[in-house]
């Protein structure tokens, strides 16, 4: 059997399966950003991706499974952390990455749609939690390094500091409609850094 005819999931990374997955996830992200979760349709996504409907149904089965895979891919493709040598510098880099993502017309709409879907779809909620868990763990070492440098107290909850950076930015995205710019990102980072230095995130 030629590799082109193999079942999805059986070809080494970089083969046809990887190309199909990439095309389908791109199409799913576009459709999600344009129409929201409720309007997602596997047949439409297959058409957008220019792959057979059978392939999409066999590989993912449901819209929620496809969105879950999209979130896994987004977490894997996100940029690695930036280490500047200071807590504030690192947190600003994190905040600006979040800000650029949420301010992007496609990405911002996509996150709004996924967050909305997560309120009523358990599998989507689980995938969203996994996405943020991966991203928080990616950046948490920046806070651990700040502890080791003596910038913040021993016992600081490193993951909670990272969550505190992005929380105000998501709040703006979802509730206020205010412009998400670098000033907002820097303000969020400065607030989180000041709170961490003051011991606000000590465990227990």
Q: What proportion strand? A: under 5%
Helix/strand order: HHHHHHHHH
Oligomeric assembly: single chain
**Structural domain count:** 2
CATH superfamily annotation of the largest domain: Tetracycline Repressor, domain 2
CATH class of the largest domain: Mainly Alpha
CATH architect. name of the largest domain: Orthogonal Bundle
How would you classify the helix and strand content by structural class?
mainly alpha
Largest sheet entry: none
Counting DSSP H or I runs of 4 or more residues, the number of helices is: 9
State Rg: 19 Å
Please name the CATH topology of the largest domain: Tetracycline Repressor, domain 2
Give the structure's gist in a few sentences.
This is Transcriptional regulator. The chain is mainly α and 204 residues long.
Task: Describe it.
With 204 residues, the protein is an all-alpha fold. The chain folds into two domains: 3-61, Arc Repressor Mutant, subunit A (Orthogonal Bundle); 74-197, Tetracycline Repressor, domain 2 (Orthogonal Bundle), CATH 1.10.357.10. Helices cover 71% and strands 0% of the residues. The chain is built from nine helices and no strands. The longest helix has 28 residues, at 122-149. The radius of gyration is 19 Å and the shape is elongated. It starts with 15 loop residues before the first helix and ends in a 7-residue tail after the last helix. Residues 1-13 have low confidence and may be disordered.
């Amino acid at each position: 059997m030629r590799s082109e005819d193999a079942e999805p999931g059986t070809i080494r990374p970089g083969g046809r399966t990887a190309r199909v997955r990439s095309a389908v996830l791109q199409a799913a992200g576009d459709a999600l950003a344009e129409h929201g979760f409720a309007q997602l349709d596997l047949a439409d996504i297959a058409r957008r991706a220019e792959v057979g409907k059978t392939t999409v149904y066999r590989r993912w089965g449901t819209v929620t499974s496809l969105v879950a895979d999209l979130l896994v891919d987004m977490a894997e493709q996100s940029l690695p952390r930036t280490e500047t040598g200071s807590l504030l510098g690192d947190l600003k880099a994190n905040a600006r990455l979040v800000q650029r993502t949420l301010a992007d017309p496609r990405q911002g709409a996509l996150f709004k749609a996924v967050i909305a879907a997560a309120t009523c779809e358990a599998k989507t909620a689980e995938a969203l939690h996994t996405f943020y868990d991966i991203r928080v763990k990616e950046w948490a070492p920046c806070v651990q390094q700040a502890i080791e440098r003596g910038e913040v107290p021993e016992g600081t909850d490193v993951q909670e500091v990272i969550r505190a950076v992005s929380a105000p930015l998501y709040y703006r995205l979802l509730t206020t409609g205010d412009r998400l710019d670098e000033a907002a990102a820097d303000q969020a980072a400065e607030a989180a850094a000041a709170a961490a230095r003051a011991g606000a995130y000590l465990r227990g």
